[in-house]
Amino acid sequence: MYDCVFCKIIDGTYESSKIYEDGEIFAFMDIQPVNQGHILIIPKKHVELIADLDDDTSGKMFTLANKINKALRKSGIKMEGVNYFLADGEAAGQEVFHTHLHIFPRFKDDGFGLKFPEGYRKNPSDRAELNLIAGKIKELL
């Protein structure tokens, strides 16, 4: 896709600090990192949502994420944990509409976090409602 920043990274129009590349996926350093060592994994094929990506490619993305996680832990980069983050759609916070999986090192008090809605921890969901929703999803698998 011509206007996609990630497609331009893949084709070499834009510079990147590449970590990995094969015929289907590409991994590179995030230019606006949450913390040092923040890496993005993208499919080479332009696909906006991971829900539209084939299972083989999405599986390879997560397999590579685990390998990168292991490498980060050995790298000497400051970290106490790792987040995998993938926003699938604008409402989920996706800003670049080309599927991308973030891997970023975390450490205590690094300033990053997810904000839960008010009342999140107060009341657990009703079991009957959870079972109803689970049944609907299970039918569609």
How would you characterize this protein structure?
This protein is α+β, with helices and mostly antiparallel strands and 141 residues long. The chain has a single domain, classed as HIT family, subunit A (2-Layer Sandwich). It has helices spanning 5-10, 55-74, 127-140, and strands at residues 18-21, 25-29, 39-43, 81-85, 101-106. It has a five-stranded antiparallel β-sheet, with helices on one face. Strand 1 and strand 2 (25-29) form a beta hairpin.
What is this entry, summarized?
The chain has 141 residues and is of the alpha+beta class. 28% of the residues lie in helices and 18% in strands.
- Percent range of helical residues: 25-40%
CATH superfamily: HIT-like
Q: Identify the quaternary structure here.
A: single chain
Average pLDDT reading: 94
CATH fold title: HIT family, subunit A
> What's the CATH architecture name?
2-Layer Sandwich
N-C termini distance: 30 Å
Helical run tally = 3
**Uncertain stretches:** none
Report the portion of residues in β strands.
15-25%
Radius of gyration: 17 Å
DSSP summary, beta strand count? 5
**Order of helical and strand elements:** HEEEHEEH
Strand arrangement across the biggest beta sheet = 1-2-3-5-4
Query: What class would the helix/strand composition place it in?
Result: alpha+beta
Taken together, the total number of domains comes to 1
Per CATH, the class reads: Alpha Beta
Largest sheet: 5 strands, antiparallel
**What spatial form do the alpha-carbon principal axes imply?**
globular
